[in-house]
Amino acid sequence: MIVNIVQLTNQFSSSVLDISCEPQVPFSDSGKQELIMAKSNASDAQALVRSLRSAYAATPTNLKIIDLYVVFAIATAIIQVVYMGIVGSFPFNSFLSGVLSCVGTAVLAVCLRIQVNKENKEFKDLPPERAFADFVLCNLVLHLVIMNFLG
């Protein structure tokens, strides 16, 4: 039994790909080595961006609209934080309410996106109308709490 485990371990370790960051060809000049590593990382990043862009092109339009809404909500929260950093946070509860409203709305929109996505097997029996009704109701409760926090 132990011999079989050792043999399987040896076979596995010999078949595993070398994924280290070191280049396979030794260089005498470290400058060339860093240049090749930088080119490799840049080409890998470009390949990653291309694959993500091609995969996102197949995304349905309704999910892209929800993604745009999430980006808008997060951008609004970032603008509020920058404004608070520049001007100050005198009514701190107002600042906190605005940022939490944006972040909460973005989280609820992500939940809506998960529920509406047809590729998600967990919510396949949930109609999109029900998911949108949940989104609207949760947003209503969120904003009622935010308005109450404003005072």
What topology emerges from the helices and strands here?
Layout: H1 2-15, H2 30-57, H3 61-87, H4 92-116, H5 128-150
Helix pairs in contact: 3-4, 4-5
What does it look like?
- It is found in: Endoplasmic reticulum membrane.
- Component of the oligosaccharyltransferase (OST) complex.
- Pathway: Protein modification; protein glycosylation.
- InterPro entries: DAD/Ost2.
- This is Dolichyl-diphosphooligosaccharide--protein glycosyltransferase subunit DAD1.
- The protein has 151 residues and is mainly alpha-helical.
- 77% of the residues lie in helices and 0% in strands.
- The protein has five helices and no strands.
- The chain has helices spanning 2-15, 30-57, 61-87, 92-116, 128-150.
- The termini are far apart.
Short précis:
Component of the oligosaccharyltransferase (OST) complex. With 151 residues, the chain is mainly alpha-helical. The chain has helices at 2-15, 30-57, 61-87, 92-116, 128-150.
Kindly list the characteristics that best describe this protein.
151 residues, mainly alpha, disordered N terminus, transmembrane helix
Radius of gyration: 25 Å
Beta-strand fraction estimate: under 5%
Could you say which structural class the secondary elements and strand pairing correspond to? mainly alpha
- Number-wise, the strands total 0
Mean pLDDT: 81
What is the terminal separation in angstroms?
71 Å
What coarse outline follows from CA principal-axis ratios?
Answer: flat
Q: How would you sum up the major sheet?
A: none
**Count of helical segments?**
5
- H-E order: HHHHH
Estimated helix fraction: over 70%
Low-confidence stretches: 1-23
Quaternary class = single chain
